[in-house]
Every structure is written in structure tokens, then in C-alpha cells.
Amino acid sequence: MKKSHVRLAAVLGSITLATALAACSADATGSGGTGDGAESGKVAFLMPDLASTRYEQQDSPLFTAKMEELCPDCEVIYQNADSDPAKQQQQADSAIAQGVKVIVLDAVDTKAAASIVVNAQSQNIPVITYDRPIVDTPADYYVSFDNEGIGELISTSLVDGLTAAGASGGVLIVNGSPTDDAAQLIKKGIHTGVDSSGFEVLAEFDTPGWDPQKAQDWVSGQITQFGSQIVGVVAANDGTGGGSIAAFKAAGVAPTPPVTGNDAEIAAIQRIIAGDQYNTISKPISIVAEAAAEVAYAFLTGNPPEGETTLFDTPSTLFTPEVVTQENVKEIIFDGGIYTVDQVCTAEYAPACEALGIA
């Protein structure tokens, strides 16, 4: 087992222990944190956008399944704001009106979402920030992968690859949303990997709403301006990475310069196998979704975990991710059970999978 996996298991184990102790406490007193009992209750799970497929396909079902395991009589109210901060505010207000006892929040706009935290906490409803921290107003808990570490991993991996290939020129940086504090942490990590690398940053872009099309449009303009000077692109997630790759293909650039990503979406794994994308980040959504459910249940029982660390004055659990390239995609993604061969190695990608010993 890899060292990082050992750490993930240890952290999840500590959260599980905390919730088990909380359950014992609830059983002894006959009530949960709100006095209504811990064996039932509504939990809101508020996600930010539909541009990233993970929220509908992974985060929501995994969180809901874990909550059902922990608390069969609890109800999860899932809403997706589709990149609209005003809509997310309305969804939070609606969840509060429906009597939720805990809110798990992945904010569209982490500054605007501070009001959601203030409103919920004023009514004694704890808020667990998920994936994206809220800097301005401390939440009650934060569960995420280490976003700054993600930025450093993808950029350092790219720099190492370019150096090994003897590349000379500059790179583009395609960041995430300017209204997402997690994106700003990733951005900080990216610069840690790039700024002292010897590769010039030709241009940099903060992608509104993490929109792949906006990333593609911007990269298209940079291709026109810089052409063959571009030897690589540090993109903050798989969506912006996919948009960047699409821009090079539309411009007839072949081969595509190495492009990074993050989230290990199926399409990104396929692009890595095919040689179109250089790397991504494996951060199994089950890790954070199940941890968030454990923490939510602990709040329901009135005994939240203390947190491994503190980030932005919020008790936090930050998991360590892994960078994925062609060299280790089989080991991490397939041998690690994240995706199956049938999910990824469809007819179009079967030859490339076979060449890497995957299928």
C-alpha cells in the first residue's frame, strides 16, 4: 500500500472513531447535538456546478450512500447551483427552511458564500465546507484534498517532464475560477512549481466558473500570439485542461504540448492514455465524500471531530493526492480500483490501453 493511502486510511479511521464515540454519546443521552436525536435528521449537500461531471456522478451519490449507511433515517437534500452564486444562496435558504441540521457546502463563489455560513450559524446549523474553503468567515469544519499541494504536484510534474525532454520555451497557466478560494490555493501551488523552473510564464488566465469553453477560447488566442513558443500548459483541472487541448487540436497543432489537469475524470484518463494530456490528480472522491458524511454525522450527534489541522481558522482534514501520468496510470487508476477497464478503455481507446498494458 502506498504511503499516502496509509495516511488516508488513518485519517478516515480517526473520523470514523470520532463518529462512533459520538454515536455512543448520543445513545447514552438519547439525543443528538440539537436535542432531536442523532438517528434522524436532514443534511444539505450543496454543490457548485455542472461543468465538472464529478458532482453528479461521484460526490453526490457517494456522500448520500455513506450517510444512508451511518444514519438510515437521515435525509440528504442535494442541490447543484450550476455556477450561479445567487442560486446557491437560494438553495441554502431553502434547505434551512426545510429544517436541515447540517450543511455541507462546496461554494460557487467562496466570498459570496460567507453569507450562507453566517446565516446558518446564526441558527445553530453547522457548516462543513467541502473542497473549497471559505476564507472570510470560518466554517465549522473543512474537508478537502490539499489544494495548494495539487497545484505544486501538477506543475512540478510538467516541469520535470519538459526538462527531461530538453524543451525550451514558455508555458501558459490556466487557473480556475477567480471567485473560488480553492482555485487560488491551486494557483499558489502552480507558481511554486513553475516560477523557479526556468520556463517563462508566457501568459496566465483565471477561468470564470472553471468553464472549459472559456479556457479553450483563451488558449486559442495565446496560440495565435505565441505559437511554437508554447511548450506546455499548466491547467488547474481536467475541464480547463480539456479545453486547452481542444484549442491546440482546433489550431492544427500536433503533437499537442503537454497539458496538466486535476480530478482524474474518465475523459482525462482517456486523454492521458492516448497521449493528449500529460497528467491529472487522483483524489478519489469517495475519500472526501465519505469523510464529509462522517463529519456531518458527528455534528448530528453533537460531537464533531477536532480536525487534523486548521486552515483559515477552520478545523480541517486535508488529504494528500497523487499525480497520474502514463507511467503510473495503470497502477493508480486501474489496480487502485478507481475506474475499471470497461469504463475507460472503450473502442476508441482500446489500442492505447493495450499498448500501456491496461487491457
Automatic annotation (TrEMBL):
Keywords: Signal. It is found in: Cell envelope. Residues 43-303 form the Periplasmic binding protein domain. The keyword Signal applies. Residues 1-22 form the signal peptide. The keyword Lipoprotein does not apply. PANTHER family: D-XYLOSE-BINDING PERIPLASMIC PROTEIN (PTHR30036). This is Sugar ABC transporter substrate-binding protein. It comes from Agromyces albus.
